[in-house]
């Protein structure tokens, strides 16, 4: 994991949810504040974009009012948490199938 934003998200989640059961969540702004305390507002869109990519890969769940959001249509105040096995399976099923050309 070479992406510092991705690493910061999972470090924060490990502290909030040490058992990794997907129950506790964190705010994206907490991650942004940890990465750039002085200018965290500038970092927040990058944190959210990284979280969205992780959600599409089934590695993270973005929630609003405790419910998973549609990764293609959401806005407003959100939180991040580890996905349940069902959420991971659904995200992976939504990915386009790999072709032989993808293996280069």
Automatic annotation (TrEMBL):
InterPro entries: DUF3253, WH-like_DNA-bd_sf, WH_DNA-bd_sf
Gene3D superfamilies named among the record's database cross-references: Winged helix-like DNA-binding domain superfamily/Winged helix DNA-binding domain (1.10.10.10)
Pfam families on file: DUF3253
Name under which the protein is recorded: DUF3253 domain-containing protein
Organism of provenance: Brevundimonas kwangchunensis
